[in-house]
Amino acid sequence: MLQTHVMESFTVVIPSEISAKYMPKKDIEVTLLDEEGEEQIVKYHTKRHRLGVGWRRFATGHNLSLGDAVVFQLMEINKFKIYIARKTGLAAVDGAFGRLQPEACAQKSSPGKAGNDMKPTRKTVVGKPKRLPLPVVDQPEICSEETDSEYLEGIRFTSSVPEFEDTKNIESFTIIYNDLIIDSEMSKHVKSRYYELCCSQNSFLHKNLVPGLNCKLVAGMISETVNISDAVRSGQVSSSSRDVLQVWRKSLEAFEHLDMNVGFLLTRLDELVKMASESEQAVDLFESKKRRSN
């Protein structure tokens, strides 16, 4: 977040390549959906590729400050899911999910208390990201007991992280990230389908995710992976528009960049897209021959 985003003109410019691929060619109203499910309507201006009227209310309503990171996840043509990471939890941002070098707040070991797990990270080199100290800022500590208690509602610590081989059935299947059990952040259907996907690879797909991501963002990645997998399995690929297929691919590529094991889904998606393309070509050829014969 820069001055133009949270202090001066209160506008957000969407990269032109993103606007060209995914946004409409006319001014529209888009919905910003925050992590609590609250919505804010914002005006999108296509000529300038920016969010205008309505963004000020969202920014001030969510106390956005200079240096905070905001992830915009395109859900629909006119809806973004918004994830916020405060400056206290990150050092630098670059790209869709951010190229970050986090320094966790001192992690508490007693039950009911948590360290800061609201820091998106992106691995740029082999091995774990280097952790650097963060500057002190004049805003509430994100690792306070009050914040942790509110944030961890429904999420609890685990005393051990089992290997996938120890999981015998869905009843013993637990989704753990950063030593936190995050099952409560997703539906039973998503958890069940995610278990099936993990079984197909004999591994937790999120096992090697970069550390420090927001737990709700991780749950969202898992849910989106399940949604794409369901669509691919049901054959929706052949009937889906190329724009939708592109969004699916970009989502999976972003997850893979964060070291989530979704390469097998990318391969399957490409296979089905190729089959659908070949089928369309066959139909076009048949119709062309039919017209010529008539």
UniProtKB/TrEMBL annotation:
Tell me which residues make up the TF-B3 domain.
1-88
CDD domains, from UniProt? Answer: B3_DNA
**Keyword annotations:** DNA-binding, Nucleus, Transcription, Transcription regulation
Which Gene Ontology cellular component annotation is one that this UniProt entry carries?
nucleus
* Localization (cell): Nucleus
Q: Which PROSITE patterns match?
A: B3 (PS50863)
Q: Write one Gene Ontology MF term.
A: DNA binding
Q: What is its main location?
A: nucleus
Residue ranges that the Swiss-Prot or TrEMBL entry lists as coiled coil: none
Pfam families given in the database record: B3
InterPro entries found in the cross-reference section: B3_DNA-bd (IPR003340), DNA-bd_pseudobarrel_sf (IPR015300), REM16-like (IPR044837)
Entry-linked PANTHER family: B3 DOMAIN-CONTAINING PROTEIN OS11G0197600-RELATED
Q: Could you identify this protein by its name?
A: TF-B3 domain-containing protein
User: What is the organism lineage in this UniProt record?
Assistant: Eukaryota, Viridiplantae, Streptophyta, Embryophyta, Tracheophyta
